[in-house]
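User: quick one
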Amino acid sequence: MKAQDKQIGAPMNRVDGHLKVTGAAKYSAEYELPNIAYAVLVGSTIARGRITSIDAKAAEKAPGVLAVISHFNSPKVPGFDTAGKDPSQPATAGGPIKIFKDDKIRFNDQPIAVVVADSWERARFAARLVKAQYAPEKHKTNLEASASEAFLPTAAKKNPKHPMNDYQRGQADAYKTGAIKLESEYVIPTEVHHPMELQAITAHWEAPDRLTIYDKTQGTMATRRDFAREWNLPEENVKVIATFVGGAFGNALHSWPHESAAIIAAKVVNRPVKLMLTREQMFTMVGYRPYTWQKLGMSATPDGKITAITHESIGQTSTYEEFTESTLAQTRMMYQSPNVTTRYRLAALDIGSPIWMRGPGEATGAFALESAMDEMAFMLNLDPLEFRLRNYTDKDPENGKPWSTKFLKECYQLGAERVGWNKRQLKPGSLRDGEWLIGYGMGVGTFGAHRGAATVGAQLLPDGTVLLQCATTDIGPGTGTAMTQIAADALGIDPKRIRFELGNSSFPKAGTQGGSSTVNSVGPATQEACLALKDKLRTLAGAGNAAFASAKKEDVTLADGYLTLSSNAAAKVSYADLIKQGGDKAVTVEAKPGGEGQKYSMYSFSVHFAEVRVHELTGEVRVSKLVSCADAGTIINEKTAGNQMKGGAVGGIGMALMEAAHIDDRFGRYVTKDFADYHVPVHADSPDVQVAFVNQPDPHVNALGTKGIGEIATIGVAPAIANAVFNATGKRVRELPITPDKLI
Amino acid sequence: MAMNPEHDAPAGHDEARRTFLKQSSLLTALAFVPAPVVDAAAANLDEKVAGAIEKVPLKLEVNGKKYKLAVEPRTTLLDLLREELNLTGTKKGCDYGQCGACTVHVDGQRVNSCLSFAVMHDGRKVTTIEGLADGDKLHPMQEAFVKHDGFQCGYCTPGQIMSAVACVREGHAGSDAEIREYMSGNICRCGAYSNIVAAIQEVKNGGQKV
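Assistant: Done. Structure below.
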């Protein structure tokens, strides 16, 4: 490969593709350890109250059972008693459940015991023999019933500058006095992440004070910190391995009770313990997108200028942790409105804690905002795209800062052409194909271009290949592949000669893979580490070669077993000579954001265009076309980035048309418990999603110009579909999902 | 559990049968004893005896290797593959036959391995994702999945590929719509469906032997 053949932007195949298609990729329940034992959780059958007794005799005597652990006999977890230090994120107030510590039940199916046996079959059987008695208390699991008790998050109460505080620009609730106004309520139900890999952990105490866990996590460092704190261990005594993560979509951003349970169990039986949740348990104890009520008021002038928006929301959280998300963020910055009011509230219910689900609060908020934009455009008899253009902002109206980059208009144009927006009629129900009504809709998404500190280690190995390491994870976007491409360009070598290792807390540190921030953060660290490695090698070579001693690091190329200089074709030092020469050929480099965020508002943008076909008799909705366009800065790999966009769009189809977890409030327990009653999109639900990127670098987020893709791929999809359904049928559905019963 | 397919598993067919007969006699005798005594005796049965009585002989050919095993009747084919044969390429995604992550071929037919007990497949040939490639040479469907990026996290991928191969063999890959219908038992939560369909189309249209 020639150095000038740039890898960044190329549609390179995934570096771990071979492992994934041959079944060789190992996920957290697939490590072979000697003498492994199997753990199965027993969940509570009440939503609130106390455990009065647990009869574990039959379970303990069942064949193969090694232990039955509950709060009656659990060993003390030292970190559980450390007051004020909650070993988890993202609690803004409260703290996660301390499993098997006391008799208190905070949600239905809360783990009350763990059964450990020498096989899955025996552990599962014995778990059914554990009988508990309870003193139940009255529970609350319905958000609407608790709406009157909704409260401002504690973090906002404590800090007037906290973003969860009420926001006001211009006059409060000014829409109420507008000449043309709307006021609509929107509801999104609880949605569950449901990655295909069930949450799993293999816990192994390698010594009484040394713990290794193979875990489904989006952040090896965060998980290490959490469990080091739980067991009062130095962080270096805890190792977290997450080489492959079978999807997560946010649900592995938090440390959960089953992880603590497996670690306790491994301590008790003094063997490695494997624990994998059931699909039913995935509903109850590893987070979800919270059920959220929203009200949006908007006023506009007859010529289509928004004059005021008020957006309120109440999201559910648990009784023990205050979970917050940025539901109202997009409303404050997306459109040019002189008056904007937002109010965010929480309702604490007797359910497990929520956790950010892909495009977290923004996707929830965008459903209300982008639906209301469509409603207002209809009231004004304006094309919804034209209405958005009339309220386009060239600087951030929330804080007056310039955008770092914003190519949303370009996205509008790309998407409108591809979906055939010119076919759209203003009057709903105008287009049909036999019994199928056809409609078009659009929805806009945005998410902060977040960047954090990250460190990457790079070393030249004796065989002339380069090994890079970082603790970051890859839950599916192709992190290792993107980093290999970035490294290939920085080093000037064939990507096949680079190996990027990740998913291990022992590697140089990185943040959690969440909030579309991985490439923004780890990308520059990879780039800088590679440049630093080249410079180090140049210095080593320079000891015996004057040309290298005076060369610039940018001129150094690693190719075909030699270090060469692009500025001096004659200069050449072989790796063999460099290796012989001795000396350290490794660097570890940290890259951090500077003060860019102070000067610029940095966001990724997306727009989604949907064409739907709605059967006029059955109310069946088919998404026949979906076009997603993004301004996500530089695209490192068109193939994997495109795939990520398509996946977000498919997630949006689920949000719009099928996903809803239902609780029977009488018992406070989910009645949806598997894929037969909680529907997610399957092949037949997904059209051939088309993706287009503006692919313009953002010079302010980082030197690579990336802004992030994961969230904007989903944010705005659900309202695009809901708006298309309105355009097809004239029916405005403000409570997701849009199931046939709402259309007939 | 012995990993070497050339050797019998620790509790081989005959041994398990002998133990079962011995144990049956014990149970027959216990049947004439008052219930509380039986309960006590049952509860205190030696674990090894209980383990043996729970196991049933099973002959299985997996990826061309012949196994003689002794398994619990309640062990699913999926758990046998993953936990006892260490063939973890076959994935557990729901245990209810709803997601397709556990798809394998049994005598050439695609099945959800979580929905069938291992003992139901006595004498049959099972192919898992680990047995699809020809040594180091990937199966055309595996190649096509890599080329078209027919996955993200990779967890549903083995099931998708096993299902995709069967889909083509069955003659159910005639169009995008037909592929989508006949692949709908395999959920990809990352949403790589478009790319999976493209991969299947390529293999179907490439005319290679699948």
